Amino acid sequence: AEDAVRMSIRAQLSSEAPFFELGCAYQRQGDLVNSIKCLRQAVQMGSSFGTDKSVAMARLYLGASFLQDNQMGEAVKHLTFCVEKLPRHVDALYLLATAHRLTADAWRTRNPSLDDEKQISSCVNMAVSWYKRLILLHPDHAEGHFWLAALLSGRGKQTGDADDDNAVAEGMAVRAAELAAAAEAAAADAAAAAAE
Fold first, then answer.
1. How does pLDDT run across 153-191, given as a tens digit for each residue?
2. Which of 58, 101, 120, 148 could form a disulfide with 127 if both were Cys (CB 3.0 to 4.6 A apart)?
3. Between 39 and 4, where is the model more confident?
4. Minimal CA–CA distance to 139: which of 189, 102, 187, 93?
5. What angle do CA 178, 60, 74 make, to 5 degrees?
């Protein structure tokens, strides 16, 4: 019995789980510095002892912390790894698309030059691509529809393809509104059922 306890303790000490849990707790509290430190340790430990899925999940949360901390390059790096390992994961797809969208927004605020416009266009195209993949795999993702519509509408204005992109954007906006209305109705039904 004593050997089993020792083996269990050794397994926990060589596991990424405590660092992962602590990193997530720091993230929920908004302490991004400590969240990033712990989640980096979880990734490192997971790479040595964990499974691909555990490393991907640690990198998902690490990418989310970088995203919240406006470190877009790091966010994209970790979220891309996560999507490679978990290609259908809804949060990974959404956060990766969002990281590209926010990177484009950051470039726009820098008084864009012609070179910056190329970078912005590249980031917008990546975001559109990831939002489309998200919606293809998760068609009821309202925020995905909303942001895809917003990006397509803005991209059409920039490229002169406004008619095509705006038509798609309008369809996405309608779908996002339908999903939001359905969610509100479901919440109202749940509240009414709970009140009975």
1. 886 544 444 455 555 556 656 666 676 666 677 677 777
2. 101
3. 39
4. 93
5. 110
